[in-house]
Amino acid sequence: MAFVVTACKDDDENPAPQVDDNPIVGTWQLTSVSAETPGTIPELALLPTLAACYLDLKLTFKSDNTLTTADCPVAVLAISQIAPVGEGTKWKVNGDVLTLTSGSTTKDFKFTQTPSELTVVANTQTDATKPAVNALLKFKKL
User: Fold this and answer.
1) Which pLDDT belongs to residue 17?
2) How far apart are the C-alpha atoms of 29 and 57, rounded to whole Å?
3) 10 within domain boundaries
4) Which of the ends of the chain has fewer CB neighbours closer than 10 A, N or C?
């Protein structure tokens, strides 16, 4: 009887880690950033100058629902203005919505995905009283 109680107690203290098998799990490299409606985000023209390595940026969606970045810290800084990416970011997918959480900041993004391509729609408008001005962030799976 003591063995059974001990075994149950151990199970409660060491639960199996959660593993998310969503197809987004893996490493994705940025291939382009563009305005959903051409001409609505003129600042995108500065991206190659401000973050020359932006097309080297990689996001890794891990099966434990954490997100890591690699290969272009300047692009991470630029993207973090519209999407909470970087150290400590968590992700969740619900249908066609990707939720990113970093600290107390949580944002939802519409996305589409094939086995080899991922497109995330990010609203660049910071004034909530104005209509969305969307950027399309396109990635290829590595």
Assistant:
1) 60
2) 6
3) no
4) N
- Say what the pLDDT of residue 1 is: 45
In a domain, 14, yes or no: no
Q: How far is CA 83 from CA 4, 18, 117, in A?
A: 48, 24, 19
**94-112: b (≥16 Cβ within 10 Å) or e:** eeeebebbbeeeeeebebe
Query: 54, 74 in Cβ contact below 8 A?
Result: yes
- What's the pTM value of the predicted model, to 2 decimals? 0.83
Six-digit token string for 80: 């973090």
Domain of 40, in residue numbers: 19-141
DSSP label of 21: -
Run means of pLDDT, 10 residues per run, the chain, 142 residues: 49 63 94 94 91 96 96 91 88 96 94 97 90 95 98
Dihedral sign, Cα of residue 94, residue 89, residue 134, residue 129: positive
- Does any domain span residue 1? no
Q: Is residue 4 part of a domain?
A: no
